[in-house]
Amino acid sequence: GGVGGHLSGPLDAMVRMYTSMRTTTIALAGDWFRTRPASGKTLCAAGLFLYTKIMSVLLPSAPRGQVVLDKIRQAIGEGRLRPGDRLREAEIAAWLGVSRTPVREALKRLQADGLVQSTPWAGMTVTSLDRGQVIELYVMRVELEGLAASLAAEYASDAEIAALRDHLDKAEAALDNAAESARLNRGFHAAIYAASHNRYLVQTLAGLSTTLALLPDTTYAVPERPAAALAEHRAIVAAIWTNDGAEAEAAARHHMRGARRARLDLSFREPAPRPVEA
Q1: Computed from CA positions of residues 114, 101, 50, 18, in that sequence, does the dihedral angle turn out positive or negative?
Q2: 3-state helix, strand, coil in the chain (%, to 5)
Q3: Which pTM was predicted?
Q4: Other C-beta atoms lying within 10 Å of the C-beta of residue 6
Q5: Contacts for 188 with CB less than 8 Å, ≥ 6 apart
């Protein structure tokens, strides 16, 4: 399918914002120039001309590369671009209204991050993770999520703990909705990361979370996983509430091991053999 259909309106709003910024900036500069005394206009003319040229060129173009990168990353994270989907430079450039250069640069950065891969037969595609890569990913999650929970037990504020409890209540109400449960789960873990108050750990976990988006479907579609995950989340929050870092870490590591089992079962389970007809 086409990439353009996957990407949505927020980019248009951002482009309009920067175009408006350019127009407003140039207009204000023009108003300022017109109010100067005649004797000062000659002195200011060259500077104003250069200023408006810079604003005209830089404001609309400066964010393009980052916008392209962010929109593709967002589409992958939200599952609108799925593993194996082709990423054609010309198609992305046409939809975003940019040249192919920022698209090419964004795809190279995504490739360096492991979110995009290049193959001789398909060109650039969204990366598909094999079983070994998924196991490696969860090895990292077990360690880092445990550390985040331990730090949260030490540094979380009362407001942050209240937010975690609110996540638990919402998750309980959404147990029968796999998609909503998955969304709340992401929010719960993001709240723990923030409560760790360690910017470098948060950045590292954010990178892992982006890579997790390459995994199709959600482990909350595995029977009984939503209820089990909720119980595990409750144990983590209880330990954070009592400032028990060791227990919070143990609970988070246990939770991640359960998530790993569910993921492997969901993504790599061997299909049941077909019955042999008599």
Answers
A1: negative
A2: 75, 5, 25
A3: 0.69
A4: 20
A5: 164, 167, 168, 171, 233
